[in-house]
Amino acid sequence: MQNQSATALVTESSRAHSASYRPRTAIIGAGAAGMLQAIKLREAGYDDIVIYEKANEVGGTWRENRYPGIACDVPAHHYNYSFEHNPGWSHRLALGPEIQEYMKKIADKYDLRRSIVFGTKVTKAHFDGRQWQIETSTGKRDTVDFLIAATGPLHVPAFPDIDGIDDFKGFKFHTAEWLDDLDLSDKRVGLIGSGSTGTQAISALAERGINLKAFIRTPQWIFPLPNRRFGKLERAVVRTFPFIGRMAGSFYGWFFEKVFAKAVISDGWQRKFLSGMCKWHLSRVKDPVLRQKLTPPDEPLCKRMVMSTLFYPAVSRPNVEIVREGIVRATENGLIDQTGHLHELDVIIFATGFHARSYHRPIEVTNASGLSLDQAWKDETGAHLSVHVPGFPNFMLIGGPHSPRGNFSAIAYSEAIVDHIVKVIRYCAENGYHSVEARPEALAQFRNRVVAAVPKTIWNTGCRNWYQDENGVPENWTGTPDEFRDILREPNYAEFNLAA
Ligand code: NAP
Q1: Using one digit for the tens of pLDDT, what is the confidence trace for 13-32?
Q2: Cβ(61) to ligand 1 under 6 A?
């Protein structure tokens, strides 16, 4: 980056205005990332913060997703804040409700609730040239210096476009909008999708003896990671000697970042190892017809790897039928597949994922020129370092475009982003800069780096997934998690326009 021009800009601005100030920051979303950002800002002494949360409880994805079998597929001892290790996890892969309890405890312990405005959706945010003007669903308005979208990329459910689906007379819902009171035990259930969510839900429903048809368009590779329940003694030992849990967390961090993440971005022993394990796992399905139905067409890790030892036994049960023939349309009684067969159903469950580029949406974010972020991202989403959008000063994203997402802890990389954001805010506050904005050329350089690494990634082997756009450009970071932490560690202010 061109340090010289930015230094000149910084120096000029410093002369113009050097008084430090106390910034007010709004965070959108009280999920794992939003709470983390609030904790870190307060720790840094910036306690004029407000978190707008659309629901009435913290937890984000873990509050919203309540489907049977929900668990985190990153080992629990690695899936907690580094400064709040939980020695009490009950399973290797923590169950959803347990993670939600952890999030609630964190909110209480750090007294975050006093900063959270619950039941309030941010609807609009407009940068007036100096500050962000916020409008909300309840009519409450706010003016803040910094606006942080901790909304996550995957929060708007995606529904398949099935002809006639509105005619279906039974129950239909997305896994993220589970009908808790609906008794499925006497129903004929169809579940569409076999990603991480579908696999977990199918396994749990099959285990409960539900009469289930699993509509699988593209089978996925499944890494055999057993979700072991920790015994009483084991848990007592970890509670007494918490360093054991931390060591386990470090091991899993190493394993997931150095093996899974590495296998995605370059060819090597990691890719061969994971591929071999998945293929061996599939070979354990004894019925050749079923095995054929479950064989993915692409390379392991092309889609986000599913972790389970429950799925293959689950779909081998007599109460489960796998339907590989594509869905053509729906009728009032069920789904018709490509062969013309009508699958009569009482319930259709969509485990069909999320709109992968939702980010701030549906919030209308506009800059001082009236340009909306949706317009700015019409052709291409992009944020420098995944955080800063040129043209949108003082607006930052956690988990934005080209941030790492895959088989490793979202909390671990969020910590790097959140620390970076605190540094930027501190720099502005201490030096009297009321506006910080990534330069377009900095974003271009960042994006070039991401794109240049694509040929070596597994995604280049020819596959379809929600990571990539129609040109094959992944929405994900294409380096190692360590490289991502490196680029965020010390903000390079030459890459930003700073103004008093
Ligand atoms: P997903 O990975 O996007 O999977 C969606 C599934 O729906 C795929 O099997 C897809 O098939 C299928 N599908 C979509 N439209 C369809 C249609 N019209 N007809 C038939 N099938 C259709 O969604 P997800 O499983 O909800 O997972 C999304 C992300 O959430 C994950 O990648 C992960 O980041 C996160 N997640 C994490 C955990 C965890 O434990 N940490 C658990 C669950 C989810 P195709 O492959 O053919 O498109």
Answers
A1: 444 446 899 999 999 999 99
A2: no
**CB-CB neighbours of 338 under 10 Å:** 11
87 CA to centre of own chain: 24
* pLDDT tens, residue by residue, 394-433: 999 999 999 998 888 999 999 999 999 999 999 999 999 9
Q: What angle do CA 175, 181, 187 make, to 5 degrees?
A: 75
| Chosen domain end from 324, 350, 376 | 350
Whether the link from the prior residue into 362 is cis, omega within 30° of 0, is: yes
Q: Taking Cα atoms as reference points, which of 349, 351, 352, 259 lies closest to residue 305? A: 259
Contact 135, 144 (CB under 8 A): no
Nearest atom of ligand 1 to the alpha carbon of 72: 40
Domain of 29: which CATH number?
3.50.50.60
Domain extent, residue 291, equals 165-238+274-350
CA of 193 to the centre of ligand 1 (A): 6
CB under 8 Å to 253, separation ≥6 — which residues? Answer: 78, 408, 409, 412
Atom of ligand 1 nearest to the CA of 303: 2
Cβ(319)–Cβ(209) under 8 Å? yes
Regarding the beta carbon of 491 and ligand 1, being less than 6 Å apart is answered no
375 C-alpha to center of ligand 1: Å? 27
Is 50 strand, coil or helix? strand
Torsion of CA 146, 151, 153, 156, to 10 degrees: -140
Token pair of 139 as six digits: 């009519």
Of 305, 334, 350, the residue at which a domain comes to its end is: 350
SS3 state of residue 141: strand
Q: By percentage, how much of the chain surpasses pLDDT 70? A: 96
* Pairing, β 364-366 against β 347-350: unpaired
Pair (473, 427) in one structural domain: yes
Residue of 92, 159, 217 best suited for mutating to test ligand 1, as the one with most atoms within 8 Å of CB: 217
Among residues 66, 148, 120, the alpha carbon closest in space to that of 417 is found at 148
Q: Which ligand 1 atom sits nearest the alpha carbon of residue 356?
A: 3
Calculate how far, in angstroms, residue 304's C-alpha sits from the geometric centre of ligand 1. Answer: 9
Q: Counting Cβ atoms within 10 Å, is residue 133 exposed (0-12), middle (13-18) or buried (19+)?
A: middle
pLDDT tens readout for residues 145-167: 999 999 988 889 999 999 999 99
Query: What is the widest separation between alpha-carbon atoms in the chain?
Result: 76
The answer to whether residues 137 and 194 belong to one domain is: no
* Domain assignment of residue 375, yes or no: yes
Residues 390, 280 within the same domain: no
Residue 198 Cβ inside 6 Å of ligand 1? The answer reads yes
Please state, in angstroms and rounded to a whole number, the distance separating the CA atoms of residues 300 and 222.
Answer: 8
Domains of the chain: total: 2
Nearest CA to ligand 1 atom 35: 196
Unique residue bearing structure tokens 């106390």? 22
